[in-house]
Amino acid sequence: MKKLLLGSVLAASSIFTVTACTSVNATTDTTPTAQMQKNHKDGAMKGPMSKLDLTATQQAQIKAIMQNKRGDRTTDRAAHQAERAQMDQQIQALTNASTLNTAALNRLADQRAAKEKQRFIERVQTQHAIAQVLTAEQRAKMEQMKSERQEKGRKHSKDRKGHDKQHQGM
Asked: Which ranges constitute the DSSP H helices of 24-101?
């Protein structure tokens, strides 16, 4: 009897929900509003670069740098995925083995460190190339925005740590 009552209550609430949604005339308008179109003009810089008052030449140069970086990444995507899958298999094999093969573990750690080093080098090279396009004032403003973003992240991290401590006592 309880199951029948519960089932009928769930069915009735589902019907009411569907009816309410359709009676509100909720449309699924996916066309962007004028404000969204204004904020995201085709070809406009996004993120921190949009706040630097870049000239058209600077924008074109930075876009070329980013496109070059992105192009390198997309051409090697399949190779990177295969490498990642192979490394995951090796890690799984090490994890499932009855004894830990420290030599193989060290090789995997070295491979991962080399990949991270390469990503770091590429990121700094890209940042350097972009910095060369900016004026001294724009570089200073970019550094200030970076500092503010890092400080905001630190504050958020501290807030989270305090939040975690409050819940540990409960």
From this structure: 34-39, 56-75, 77-96
The string of pLDDT tens digits covering residues 106-139 is 999 999 999 999 989 999 999 999 999 888 888 8
Dist. CA 121–CA 129, nearest whole Å: 12
Under 8 Å CB-to-CB from 86, ≥6 apart: which residues? none
**Dihedral sign (CA 154, 140, 135, 51):** positive
CA pair distance 103, 94, nearest whole angstrom: 11
The number of helices, as runs of H, and strands, as runs of E, in the chain is 6, 0
Between CA 10 and CA 12 the distance in angstroms is: 5
User: Span 38-54, mean pLDDT?
Assistant: 64
Alpha-carbon span 151 to 147, nearest angstrom: 6
On whether the CB atoms of residues 88 and 108 are closer than 8 A, the answer is: no
Per DSSP, 12 falls in state: H
Please tell me the least confidently modeled range out of 43-52, 103-112, 128-137, 142-151: 43-52
Q: Are 138 and 44 in contact (CB under 8 A)?
A: no
DSSP letter at 101? -
